[in-house]
Amino acid sequence: MSEAIDIDGERAERPSVATSQISASPVFAMLGAVLTAALLVLSSYAGPNLVAGAYLVSGLMLAGGWARLLRLPRERSSSLLLAISAASLTVIVALTEDLQGIRWVTAALAISLALVFLHTLTRRGGLDRVVVALSSMALGLGALASGAFIADAVVRENGRETVAAALTAAAVGTLLDSGTRGRARLSEWSLPTSLVVGVLIGIGASIIAGVPWNAPLLAGLLGAGVSYAFRLILSAPVDCEGNNRSATAPAQLALGAASVLFVGVLPTAVTWLFQHVG
């Protein structure tokens, strides 16, 4: 009979048991990443309203499983706060028809961070647990805010192709990373393979669209690398401590969605860079 430990008043299995459960559910992380990238890339060619709809679906996917993924206390209220933040950012995405509208993201993010701070301070627990909960929620808000910048990138020159390269590279990297999880030899090649594939995706997007290759190529490379680093940050505490909630479908869907949303600011940064440098 397996032993159990108590974490914040909840029963959690030993790491050995939890790790096997986590390894058994990579398909949901893959599904979350592919669905998020497909929705956002396809909608970027259709208009701001569809981009906003795709963003809302992705944001709610993240909000629904983020607390489980990072084993946060007050799971329902934490998910509700993230969902409210995703909804408020969706309004900004829908109204962003020029390069000025996205500036409201900073205001929405500041209000959301204040609410998260108050929500975290009202719970009981040691200072270390409060800090972990606050930083985990802030990371989730960062992924949501970064994804909102896709609305800014699509109105820039060659922005849609850059968005397609960055998000597709992040999704493919998630597929490779999740597919090789638990296989030590194969997982060592996950990052370099993702980077190469990201470059190829960027070149392919530029050739298909007939645009300069520089911005899509760099976006594909950075999209694969940043997404990998983001998943590495999230997986470290799960692998060390373990919790069976992290292996559930909502948690893994949130991981996949967040891996793609987190690179959303890269297309804006890359297109801005080449517009000013070139």
Short description:
Helices cover 77% and strands 3% of the residues.
Per-chain topology:
Layout: E1 4-7, E2 10-13, H1 15-23, H2 26-44, H3 48-69, H4 75-95, H5 104-121, H6 127-148, H7 150-153, H8 159-179, H9 184-187, H10 190-209, H11 214-241, H12 249-261, H13 265-277
Antiparallel strand pairs: 1-2
Task: Give the mean pLDDT.
Answer: 83
Regions with little confidence, pLDDT below 50 for 5+ residues: 1-24, 237-243
Helix share, percent: over 70%
Distance, first to last CA: 65 Å
Secondary-structure class = mainly alpha
Q: In one word, what is the shape?
A: globular
Number of helices: 13
Oligomer: single chain
What Rg is obtained from the alpha carbons, in whole angstroms? 19 Å
Main beta sheet strand tally, sense and closure: 2 strands, antiparallel
Widest β-sheet, arrangement of strands: 1-2
Strand content: under 5%
- Number of strand elements: 2
Order of helices and strands: EEHHHHHHHHHHHHH
Structure description:
The protein is an all-alpha fold. Helix content is 77%, strand content 3%. The protein has 13 helices and two strands, in the order ββααααααααααααα. Strands 1-2 form a two-stranded antiparallel ribbon. Strand 1 and strand 2 form a beta hairpin. Helix 6 crosses helix 12. The chain is globular. The relative contact order is 0.18. The N terminus is likely disordered.
Characteristics:
278 residues; mainly alpha; two-stranded antiparallel ribbon; disordered N terminus
